[in-house]
Design goal:
The structure is a single chain. It is built from one helix and eleven strands, in the order αβββββββββββ. It is an alpha+beta fold. The chain has a domain of 111 residues: Jelly Rolls.
Length: 170
């Protein structure tokens, strides 16, 4: 094959490769933009913060405000949970990663299949926890606390001890 013809063929292959890579990148950006094409600005006093009773898979007494997404469906979500004083979520797991930020007060988090208040770590306002999928953990409060949870839905929970699951208490 002629050297100039080989160079032209190589140049054509390289250009085609960069075009398809660029198109794939733009498609990926388009997909990302579809899922995050809006912006949200909230203050805790905004009327958009509507507190309601927590979901049935959490013990009674907790309140929840959905900030973004639908935690019952597939996709990203952000919620705030208002824990009353002396509130406990027994040891459990989630099928997806959970990110928790303490917004007000203090919350306590521990790892493992057994609730051990002495081993739990106190997270104060601004404290942050990353809980991998299927990692057994528990949470509790000593005084009122507000935490923000974000992750990928559906937001689900499996209690280590099925007797701790509020859905089993009728």
């Amino acid at each position: 094959m002629d050297t100039s013809r080989s160079k032209a063929l190589l140049l054509g292959v390289l250009l085609w490769g960069s075009y398809t890579a660029s198109a794939q990148h733009q498609q990926h950006q388009g997909d990302s933009a579809m899922h995050g094409s809006h912006h949200m600005l909230y203050n805790p006093t905004d009327s958009a913060m509507k507190w309601m009773p927590g979901p049935p898979f959490l013990p009674a007494g907790i309140k929840m405000s959905v900030l973004e997404g639908d935690p019952s469906k597939e996709g990203p979500f952000t919620v705030r949970l208002q824990m009353p004083a002396n509130y406990t979520i027994p040891p459990h797991t989630h099928p997806t990663i959970e990110h928790v930020t303490v917004i007000e007060g203090s919350a306590y988090f521990g790892m493992g299949n057994t609730l051990n208040r002495g081993a739990a770590k106190q997270l104060k306002r601004g404290g942050y926890a990353v809980l991998p999928a299927n990692m057994a953990h528990y949470a509790f409060s000593k005084s009122r606390a507000v935490v923000q949870v974000h992750g990928m839905g559906p937001f689900a929970i499996t209690y280590i001890n099925p007797a701790d699951d509020p859905r089993n208490k009728h």
